[in-house]
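INTERNAL AUDIT FORM
Audit reference: QA-55
Scope: verify that the stored structure record matches its stored sequence.
Auditor: D.O.
Record contents follow.
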Amino acid sequence: MAQEKTIRNSRQRTLVFDALKASHEHPNAEEIYLAVKEQMPDISLGTVYRNLNLLEQMRMVNRIHTGVSGDRFDAVVSEHPHIICTKCGRVADIACCIDEEIAQLREKLQKSAAQIEALQIMAWGVCDHCK
């Protein structure tokens, strides 16, 4: 019988998570690293990546695969749509109320043969800063 691996909290992971929660810009790992480095100068970029991966496995953060500027991260784990700028790579929440539509889509997808583990709705276009 396989044993559950206990994941202990660490100061580094707490700082990474707090830096992500404090940002509403959907930062990449390097941006999170720079924010955490202000509080913990000896932290490495590798430690930030490892903790982001662990936080994602724990379903405390969402990884957003942009296809443009590398992965971005979001501390808001509820399903909500994003816009990805094709010019600068910025990721932003789309301000609209489609919670009901997302729930209906998830329900329809669950009826398919596939087991849905995550749902991300993304649009690609030019952000307000690049217009």
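Auditor finding: record pair retrieved intact. Helices lie at 11-22, 29-37, 45-57, 99-110.
Action required: none
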